[in-house]
Amino acid sequence: MQKVNKLIISVLTTLGLYLLSASGAYDTLERRLTAGSGMQRMKNVTVAASTSRGQFSMPAAAPLAGFVPGGTNDGTQAQTEPSEEPDPEELSAETEEAVTGEADSVLETTIKGGMSIKNETQYWVDAGEMLADGPGLSLPSGEAQILIIHTHSSEAYTQAGLDHYEASDSNRTEDTQYNIVRIGDELTEILTDAGLNVIHDRGIYDYPSYTGSYSRSGEAVEQYLANYPRIRIVLDIHRDALGADGVVYKTMAEEDGVCASQVMLLVGTDESGLEHPYWRQNLALALYMQNAVNQVNPTLMRPVDLVPQRYNQHLSGGSLIVEVGSSGNTLQEALAAVRLFGAAIAPALCELVGE
């Protein structure tokens, strides 16, 4: 049995090395990270500090000294593989690469959501009880409260109208005016205008390779949490990829007077076997936000997705993935969606602000 296990490991390792070598991922990634290590510190970090809820001040450079968003923390090459074991999310990334290829057609779909959970785990959860109990967290007044980051920062949308970009791959670009970082900019502005204090990391963590993107963004999250320990919510904003056999679907909300994609909250668990003490707390926050949006925009939200993988959400309570639209949507549809989403969750989050 031991010999068989060793043989399987050997075959898988050889295959993985062959694929990486064939794609040039190792060489390209090394060049990219080496070049990135000399970037100006904090050049991709936006601190959005509201002045309407007490005094909030954050040093411009000292808190993240030695930290390069999207790069390495110590000037050396970042890990390209998770340190503990291969994470299932890397496999998800490979699936997404296939889905976001050239499509023969793009079809609209509206996924019925409301107050529902798409439970992909074996865990039993009482959504009603969680919703009644509330999210179980409070936001500090006058300090950094929310971190917005993008593990797959280069994710972009179907080009349409005036929204054209130089693609780095299918529906991906490093241009932050057209990729998922733009969605984060919009949400940051909405939450800040409502009186919340937000840090928005605009770094690129998934280019030139998706492999290792969660490791890199995870290191960034840990650095922020160390420097701003009272951050209570971490939102990793993505766009989804839905489709198969040459057909790509774009999600569409059915709200009057607006042409918007749908939004989905994804919550990871410890069912994959990796430690994750916060998943129930995270699910409670997701349901709280889902309910806030559903009260005003009942077709905007897809079901909350509860999955076995943890997607860096084990690093802090209040951590969620927010999927805004899919690769079939346009940027304008996604922007419309995040505006509706932000306008609904902002007052709900303000209610959590303590003294």
Strand-pairing-aware structural class: alpha/beta
Intertermini distance: 60 Å
Q: Report the sheet-strand fraction.
A: 5-15%
> Any idea what the shape is?
globular
Provide the gyration radius in Å: 20 Å
Unreliable residue stretches: 1-43, 59-86
Q: Multimeric state of these chains? A: single chain
State the gist of this model:
By secondary structure, the protein is an alpha/beta fold.
Report on this model:
This protein is 34% helix and 15% strand. The protein has 355 residues and is an alpha/beta fold. It has helices spanning 2-23, 25-36, 88-99, 127-133, 180-193, 213-227, 279-296, 331-350, and strands at residues 45-48, 105-109, 117-119, 146-149, 198-201, 233-240, 243-244, 247-251, 263-268, 304-307, 319-326. It is globular, with a radius of gyration of 20 Å. The chain starts with a helix and ends in a 5-residue tail after the last helix. It has eight helices and eleven strands.
Kindly list the characteristics that best describe this protein:
3-stranded mixed β-sheet, 8-stranded mixed β-sheet, 355 residues, 8 helices, disordered N terminus
Write the layout of secondary structure elements.
Blueprint: H1 2-23, H2 25-36, E1 45-48, H3 88-99, E2 105-109, E3 117-119, H4 127-133, E4 146-149, H5 180-193, E5 198-201, H6 213-227, E6 233-240, E7 243-244, E8 247-251, E9 263-268, H7 279-296, E10 304-307, E11 319-326, H8 331-350
Parallel strand pairs: 2-8, 3-10, 4-5, 4-6, 6-11, 9-10
Antiparallel strand pairs: 1-5, 7-8, 9-11
Helix pairs in contact: 4-7, 5-8, 7-8
